[in-house]
Amino acid sequence: MRLIDITNSYPHLVAQQLAHTDTNYIKVYSLGSTTVIYTRAASHDELLFTNDKRNIQDAEIAFALDKLAHVAFADVNVIHGDKLAEVSLATEEF
Q1: Which pTM was predicted?
Q2: Which domain does 23 fall in, by range?
Q3: Which domain of life is it from (predicted)?
Q4: What span, in angstroms and rounded, lies between the C-alpha atoms of 32 and 58?
Q5: Which of 22, 31, 39, 93 is least surrounded by CB atoms within 10 angstroms?
């Protein structure tokens, strides 16, 4: 599996997220036929997985978590939906 940065293909999404949410960082990646949207805010990070044709596989989530957030799949709660999945990670405040 490979994550490919495709953020430049989604300028409207990036602009809307930055303008209307508490997000201060956003990246969009392609993981084959799955799109991964990784956002950071002051209090949390989020990964949203979407796929137009099938449900998201746990292996895809585990791979992206390892590469982007350096977190193990076993350490998070995943919210599964029809052809999407979401992971929210609380960030530590010092």
Answers
A1: 0.89
A2: 3-90
A3: Bacteria
A4: 14
A5: 93
